[in-house]
UniProtKB/TrEMBL annotation:
Keyword Transmembrane helix: yes
The species this protein was found in: Neorhizobium huautlense
Domain Cytochrome oxidase subunit II copper A binding, residue spans: 107-219
Gene3D superfamilies in UniProt: 1.10.287.90, Cupredoxins - blue copper proteins
Residues passing through the membrane, by range: 17-41, 62-83
Entry keywords, A to Z: Cell membrane, Electron transport, Lipoprotein, Membrane, Oxidoreductase, Palmitate, Respiratory chain, Signal, Transmembrane, Transmembrane helix, Transport
Biased composition (Polar residues): 360-369
Family annotation (CDD domains): CuRO_UO_II (cd04212)
Subcellular location: Cell membrane
Positions of the UniProt region annotated as Disordered: 301-369
Recorded family membership: Belongs to the cytochrome c oxidase subunit 2 family.
Protein name: Ubiquinol oxidase polypeptide II
GO molecular function per UniProt: oxidoreductase activity
Length: 369
């Protein structure tokens, strides 16, 4: 029943979408159910006054009614669904507090970072530097921006009175924008089976006044302990029916480490690993660069097929053999020149003559301009 009587504007809009959709579909379902009963009664065997037309097979008027009514309903339902899908997108920032009040220009959303653990919920309040387990609070009529992730398996964050459910996945971050419009204590739960302790993975959401929220933050800071990486690693271990816990201080960057799956000391963070991959790898060429290198080597090798390497010449980094150079005078018989061939430099051009083409080595080692 809380879905049909929510306390948050997003959940109220989702409730309205459910009601409108059901009413539109009932426009078809109710007449069909009524006509089914009417035909069974009217055309009963004992009713001899009913028209009996065993050879009847078509009515244009009836076909128009049968097809046009459902088509019109589908068009209207599709339009409403399309509009609501964009308007109620969980990543879309709010544009109103409720149906009668827009978001104030000076309103600052409350940011809450959510981590689904086995089998409990961890909430970070980065603006206030505190964290809690299995309890959260938010002021009435203040927009809330949720950033949601998980530590191990996929889960689903759901406060029925506030907004629809949104998935929590390890190594990924989903978002949800919502607002609570009424004071009260509301149930939050895991809406996706995640293991043995799933049924007890619940928390309380407190909708309070601004003064009440300030008092709640003060209580967390007064009674809470410190949440650092070691404390988190102990909390991360699977446990059931975890009591409410307060943390007065939170280690800087802890949520980011949880999101990037590197809370364990010495473990590389996912964002660092992705950056290294994007830059081509840690000292190793990326796949694209390696493929380009193979292509260049192959084509350079085809162009230089049969050419010799001069003594002492080194092979370039690309793997293409160095081009042969003409041996210096007195080096005939050098191992770089084949025994059956000779290499003579071209004659110097005479005055008025153009410089001939440079000598090239044939496959048999002979020189030819």
């Amino acid at each position: 029943m809380v879905v049909m009587s929510p306390s948050g504007d997003i959940a109220a809009q989702q409730r309205d979408l459910i009601v409108v959709s059901v009413l539109l579909m009932l426009l078809i379902i109710v007449p069909v159910l009524f006509l089914t009963l009417y035909f069974a009664w009217h055309y009963r065997h004992s009713n001899t006054k009913a028209r009996y037309e065993p050879n009847w097979h078509h009515s244009t008027r009836l076909e128009v009614v049968i097809w046009s009514a459902p088509l019109a309903i589908i068009i209207v339902l599709g339009a409403i669904t399309w509009i609501s899908t964009h308007k109620l997108d969980p990543y879309r920032p709010l544009d109103r507090l409720d149906a009668e009040r827009p978001i104030p220009a000076d309103a600052k959303p409350l940011e809450v970072e959510v981590v689904a653990l086995d089998w409990k919920w961890l909430f970070f309040y980065p603006e206030y530097g505190v964290a809690t387990v299995n309890e959260m609070a938010a002021p009435v009529d203040r927009p809330i921006t949720f950033k949601i992730t998980a530590s191990s398996v996929m889960n689903s964050f759901y406060v029925p009175a506030l907004a629809g459910m949104i998935y929590a996945m390890p190594g990924m971050e989903t978002k949800l924008h919502a607002v609570i419009n009424k004071e009260g204590v509301f149930d939050g739960l895991s809406a996706n089976y995640s293991g043995a302790g799933f049924s007890h993975m619940r928390f309380k959401f407190h909708g309070v006044t601004n003064e009440g929220f300030d008092g709640w933050i003060a209580r967390v800071k007064q009674t809470g302990t410190a949440l650092n990486r070691d404390t988190y690693l102990k909390l991360e271990k699977p446990s059931e029916r975890e009591p409410v816990r307060y943390y007065a201080t939170v280690e800087d960057g802890l949520y980011s480490r949880v999101l990037n799956m590197c809370a364990t000391p010495g473990k590389m963070c996912m964002n660092e690993m992705m950056h290294i991959d994007m830059m081509g790898g840690a000292g190793v060429e990326s796949h694209e660069n390696r493929e380009k290198l193979k292509y260049d080597n192959r084509h350079a090798g085809e162009a230089g097929h049969g050419q010799q390497t001069a003594p002492g010449a080194t092979v370039p980094a690309t793997g293409v053999p160095a081009r042969s150079e003409a041996p210096a005078a007195g080096t005939e018989g050098n191992a770089a020149t084949p025994d059956h061939g000779s290499h003579q430099p071209p004659a110097e051009p005479q005055a008025g003559e153009s410089n001939p083409a440079p000598a090239q080595l044939n496959n048999n080692g002979s020189s030819q301009p």
